[in-house]
Design a protein that fits this description.
The protein is of the alpha+beta class. It has seven helices and eight strands. β6 and β7 form a beta hairpin. α4 runs parallel beside α6. The longest helix has 19 residues. Bound molecules: zinc ion. The site of zinc ion (ZN) has 8 residues, from loops.
Length: 254
């Protein structure tokens, strides 16, 4: 049976002299492994179509407990990402993140939305009009929301008391609880961050605006710092993997 699906190459590894394994984040099947034969009877399009960041229409056949790649029609290679080491590192982190969280062989609306978000994020990194840290925060917070960890930002997550919208207010975000808590519900033992009204407003925007419009706003340095701190900790709380690319980004930015 031949399967045709749009997909992004999120991981590649060479096995032996002739074959290459790639991990595809597909529109219809979630995350799958595919073997890409490198033998001479296949032309070079398979070699270029199986590089990291390639987005295209993949034609596959089921092969043992994996898939065998027949053909790729490349839609976008995102080659501009390779022009700048820092941009490339952020883009590699995005791939490492989705390769970790995408569900194996599971399509569906959430899978499609996560793929759209990933592609929009890569486009935004190519355009390079926003601070890279902001792009990462937008991606992480929205990805976590799609994955079922939408933070509660309207009412106290513990007692359901609505939280008044007031630009003078400071809000308390508790990672373990998954959202804001009111002053009488602050847990003693759990880690929390204070965030300003503007940061809260930005988080609401990131979690609810249509994905196509996600990368069309700027924030000041104070908001970016607060946002970064919340996204970092919230993301690490839900996704326990330690990402090699993040360590590298830290090294080059310090
Ligand atoms: Zn409360």
């Amino acid at each position: 049976m031949i399967i045709k699906t749009k997909a992004l190459v999120v991981k590649e590894s060479i096995v032996g002299e002739s074959d290459k394994y790639i991990t595809l984040f597909t529109k219809d099947l979630g995350k799958i492994q595919a073997i890409a034969p490198k033998s001479k009877k296949y032309d070079n399009s398979l070699a270029s179509g199986t590089q990291l960041f390639v987005y295209g229409e993949f034609m596959l056949t089921a092969y043992k407990d994996t898939y065998r790649l027949m053909n790729v029609e490349i839609i976008n290679m995102f080659h501009e990402l390779r022009n700048d080491l820092t941009v490339l590192s952020y883009a590699s982190y995005i791939l490492e993140f989705v390769a970790e969280v995408a569900q194996v062989e599971q399509g569906g609306p959430d899978n499609e939305t996560l793929l759209s978000l990933t592609l929009m994020t890569l486009h935004s990194l190519v355009k390079n009009k926003h601070p890279l840290k902001l792009i990462r925060c937008i991606f992480e917070l929205r990805a976590l929301s799609i994955l079922g960890f939408m933070p509660e930002l309207k009412q106290c997550v513990e007692c359901s008391r609505p939280l008044r919208e007031d630009p003078e207010n400071t809000y308390i975000f508790v990672y373990e609880s998954g959202g804001l808590v009111c002053e009488s519900c602050i847990p003693y033992h759990q880690k929390h961050s204070d965030i300003s009204f503007s940061t809260l407003y930005t988080m609401k925007h990131i979690t609810h605006t249509p994905i196509k419009q996600l990368f069309s706003f700027q924030v000041n340095a104070t908001i970016l710092n607060e946002l970064e701190s919340v996204c970092n900790l919230y993301s690490r709380f839900h996704i326990e993997k330690s990402f090699k690319t993040l360590d590298f980004i830290k090294q080059i930015e310090d």
